[in-house]
Amino acid sequence: MNDSKYVPSAREQAFLDTVENPRYERESINGLRPFFDEKMPDDMRDFYSAVELAELKALKGTERDVEARMPVKLTRHYFELAQKSAPIRRLVKASPGETESLEGSEDPGNQMDYSPVEGLLHKYEMGLMYVVSTCSAHCRFCYREELIGRKEIERQDGTVAKKGMAQIPDIVRYIHEHNQAVEANGGTHPDTGREKLREILLSGGDPMVLSNAKIAAWFGALAEAGIESIRLGTKEMAFFPQRFDQTFLDMLDNFHKTYPEVGLRFMVHFNHPDEFLLKDDNGNYVKEEGGALAWHAETKRAMNGLVSRGWLCVENQSPLIKDINDDPDALRIMQRALKRVGANNHYFFCGRDIVAHKAFNISIEEAWRILNDSQKGLSGVETHARLSITHYLGKTEVVAVTNEPMEGVKGAENGVVIFKLLRNAADAPDRGKVCIVGRNPDAIWFDGFEDRVLFDEAGLFDYQRVQKDSPSSITV
Ligand code: SF4
Fold first, then answer.
1. Is the CB of 135 within 6 Å of ligand 1?
2. Is 433 helix (H, G, I), strand (E, B) or coil?
3. Which domains does the chain have, with CATH numbers?
4. What is the mean pLDDT of residues 312-317?
5. What's the 144 CA to ligand 1 centre distance in angstroms?
6. Ligand 1 pocket test: which of 30, 134, 141, 142 has the largest number of ligand atoms within 8 Å of its C-beta?
7. What pTM was computed for the model?
């Protein structure tokens, strides 16, 4: 942590002076204790059955304590959505099944290897910052459970500590130092080979739980430091869409007026159309006049507030999670409904190998089939989303799963899975390189293919190590 105080520029201060900070009442329930002690509003009492509560209580204090793995949190808005949706209940309700297997990595993707400053991950030309360690509600499948649960993890240097939050003075100094070194070296950093740090993602946790003033302070500081595009990753439009109120939109407008050259990208996180489409009492989606599916008024207002500002963009990304959205029909509805209102479908993710991932992940091949099936019948612009899996080398696309054998290639009798590296560290020298493995319908992570690597120019596997066990190899 840096003790030096950050001093905003005059232009930045003038922008910050315009920001209003209302209080928001999310009516959140924190933890299972209010349910155990029946200290929650009357209408929420049946959210967990007596049997469910007894099972969860029996795990308290044991290795399988679900709250020790991932804190429980729920907003009233999300509770109300959950009344008409089994996937939403599954997303937010703790269940004993979560901790049946605690296998998994505390630092999926070896992210901490790329943390030059507390709270910042700098792997690509883009940086990701942890600016807060909670969200309005908590997804049980959260791939940042170590951050939300404030767990201690091991760093590359062997030290063990909780992940810290990014601080403006540290981050601004790092951006200046990095970008000056890049410029002096003709476009790439002399030590790491990375290009200019031009894009930063505010993440956590959900930055939308911060006040307008805090978000504005980050925006202003990043803009002054020369960042060209700012992203904000948020699930608030699902958990508490009322947060996107006029004061927040005014802050965005004033930011844009002050820094018109800086792009803003909202990376929203809808997992299922039940999070934004209106349902009747029979659980069917309500249609608008004309036949399109109607949105919840508050969510529609929030989304319109963003997409109506043509100088920012809205991109949805979501993992594919067992019993939540492993459903081609739901995904088809979601992709179509989002694109109709102007939000783009960016990525779907295979679940990460987080601790307890077995309760949530579906197999890689199943994820590809579900997404592919969901995109049948959608128009070209509705099917922009790709299936991505985060390898420790970088973001990787699951390009295809074939059913037919590859003639003459041992190990491809049941078809193959084709991966393509989309990004890797520094200036992505290996982008576009592919890896082909024999199929394994049970594989939920790369290690499930280790014994059947056929071709790996991308280097996703330690090819030398697995080569001797591989059924075959092909060359190009
Ligand atoms: S919104 Fe994201 S960070 Fe927050 S609990 Fe859900 S998955 Fe985790």
1. yes
2. coil
3. 10-22+103-385 (3.20.20.70), 29-99 (no CATH), 393-476 (no CATH)
4. 98
5. 7
6. 142
7. 0.93
